[in-house]
Amino acid sequence: MTAVSSKSNNWLKGLRTLVRDYPIIPLIILLLGLVVALEVMRPGIINERWMANTVKFAIPLAMLAACQTLTMLTGGIDLSVGVAATVSAFVAASQLTVLGPTGAILVALVPPLLIGLVNGVGVALFRVHPLIMTLGTGLIGTGCLLVYQRTVIASGSSVPDILSWLGTGLSYGVPNSLIIFVPLAVIIIVGLRRTGFGRLLYAVGENEEAARLAGVRTWQVLITLYVISGLIAGITGLLYLGLIKAPSLSLVEPRVLPSVAAAVIGGTSIFGGRGGYSGTIVGALILTVLATMLTVMQIPEGTRRIFFGLIILGVTAIYVRLTQDR
Amino acid sequence: MFRFLRKHYWTFGLLLILIALLVFTRVIQPNFGTFGLEALTRAALPFAFATAAQAIVVIAGGIDLSIASMMAVSSVTAAVLMDGASEQFAFLVIPVVLLVGATMGAINGVLIVITRVPDIVVTLAMLFVWEGVALMILNSPGGGSAEWVQGMLVGSIVLGFIPEIVTQWVPKAFIVMVVFLCIVWIPLRRSNFGLSVYAIGSSDMAAFRSGVNVNRTKIAAYAICGLFAAMGGLVLTASTGIGAPIPGPYLLASVAAVVLGGVTLGGGVGGLLGPIIAVLILRLIRTDLTLMSVDPNITTIVEGTIMVVVVMAGGFMAARRKTR
């Protein structure tokens, strides 16, 4: 009797260590499980085109979730990414005829960088809670966007060819957006593990005061972090522009909360100090597959949202249960 | 008196700003009178309830991202129940909707306590769930509302023994707001339970050690949040006459007003008066900018800037106090 219980205890402990140290393994199992379930529901749906499509839609989400992962590592969050991305898409689409593709894309990245800078200054120097700060800059950005939108309506907009190639194109059955995404992901993953800056993010998130006393200039770390987050959001906006082809106010905004969900499912703690980007990527894939699955099941929109919410909650709850020390 | 002022300096500051803004409005628009005041309070009503809902959970050390969705659920529930029903039936509908709201809030709280997932993540997930529930109840804007419920928000109060010259300055919507908020808030503030809410907000460990049932208090705080959100939903249905399943812009606005109102994120500090005044200020600024025929879109920029500047100033002052 005792042997059995201790055995199952060991098993549970092993699982717990596994989940804590390699959160990506159970996540990948969950992802594969979802794919298998999808194939069972609708045999033949899993093919190259479906996979390419899934990856194509998961990439921008994973990039937005990168902003969340990085800021969450320091105990923050960035809710202005949706607006930052939409602004950059709008600027790129409207300035194309004036500045040419390169100029338009470069100019488009200026507003998101500015939003990131303001976020960073507010969070780092004025000690504003990141949630409030990024909500506020998001509001300001939305206002500016609404004003700017009229010039777009007046001047018309078009999507740079390079962006639609990146956003929707396939080469040898592989989405072109991987050209942007793979280097970005490698930089983030390696950067978090191997560089000083990456470790500083974990240090600040674990205990900001301790990091400061250890000689870290936390304000510089935080400002840099939020600027980087703004930049990634800007690039994501350009990708969305290439993917959806029509700039609209709701281009990226509905994806912001799912991006937080992707990071949370991927095992990044919202309180900081724990997590990584590889889990987030799988999280974004899981959410994308899940969305397809709920569409395939042809259940009404309402039920679909309920499922979506419950699954986010369920996965995080299991994750917290398994990793929490008692 | 001085101590009282110092303790509530933030609320008094907000009150002064509100009065200054009212005077300013009167200057730029000499016609601004009873009608303007009535429109202002009516527009502020759903925001006020959303803010009250947010305030109590923030005081308890949490945050609720699902407020707008819960308001949508309450709004459609009310609209569906009242649609085509008799006027008297609406008397029953209101308590039912309030109960639904409190239940939704309690579910949020129970999930937070059971799963031990951070509040922000749970309510983020529940945002989708409640949104889905609202869509299931009513797929597109529709339903109806009883006449007297709609009438409750329009016009000013009529009291026989006070001359009309006074009563016309008190919009019914204002009375609704004050009555509904006070019915919940004042007993709460005076009770042990209210004290526990502040206690778990400022330090749940200390509260636990002093014998507060942290979990039960947290669930109750979320239930009251749901109750306020249900009031917000009812007001929405009453003012438009239909139920809208798509959540409005109340989440951002509620967080903004709560923070402007002097309730700090992290919990344990603040009250309800400050956030409500903040709601009125934010609405009045919107009205003023419209009166000055400023592009309504610029209004959003101004609101965002005010919010950011105020919290930055607050943060700066707090940092300076600490170093001194």
The chain pair forming the largest interface, with residue counts per chain, is: A-B, 46 and 49 residues
Question: At the first level of CATH, what is the class of chain A?
Answer: Mainly Alpha
Question: Percent helix among the residues of chain B?
Answer: over 70%
Q: Average the pLDDT over all residues of chain A and give the rounded result.
A: 83
Radius of gyration of chain A: 21 Å
* Average pLDDT metric of chain B: 83
According to DSSP, the number of beta strands of chain A is 2
User: What overall form of chain B do the CA principal axes indicate?
Assistant: globular
Task: Give the domain tally of chain A.
Answer: 1
Please outline the major beta sheet of chain A.
2 strands, antiparallel
**Amount of beta strand of chain B:** under 5%
Q: How far apart are the first and last residues' alpha carbons of chain B, in Å?
A: 26 Å
By CATH, the topology of chain A is ABC transporter involved in vitamin B12 uptake, BtuC
Structural class of chain A: mainly alpha
Strand arrangement, major sheet of chain A: 1-2
Figure out the total of helices of chain B: 15
Rg of chain B: 20 Å
Structure report:
The complex is a heterodimer of chains A (326) and B (324). Chain A is an all-alpha fold. Chain A has helices at residues 2-21, 24-41, 48-73, 81-108, 110-124, 130-155, 161-168, 178-194, 196-206, 208-213, 218-244, 256-265, 277-296, 301-323; strands spanning 170-171, 174-175. Chain A has a single domain, classed as ABC transporter involved in vitamin B12 uptake, BtuC (Orthogonal Bundle), CATH 1.10.3470. In chain A, 78% of the residues lie in helices and 1% in strands. Chain A has a two-stranded antiparallel sheet with strand order 1-2. Chain A is globular and about 70 Å long. The mean pLDDT of chain A is 83. Chain B has 324 residues and is mostly helical. Chain B has a domain at 35-250 and 262-270. In chain B, helix 4 (67-82) packs antiparallel against helix 5 and helix 4 packs across helix 12. The radius of gyration of chain B is 20 Å and the shape is globular. The model of chain B has no long low-confidence stretch (mean pLDDT 83). Chains A and B meet through helix 6, helix 12 and helix 14 of A and helix 5, helix 6, helix 13 and helix 15 of B.
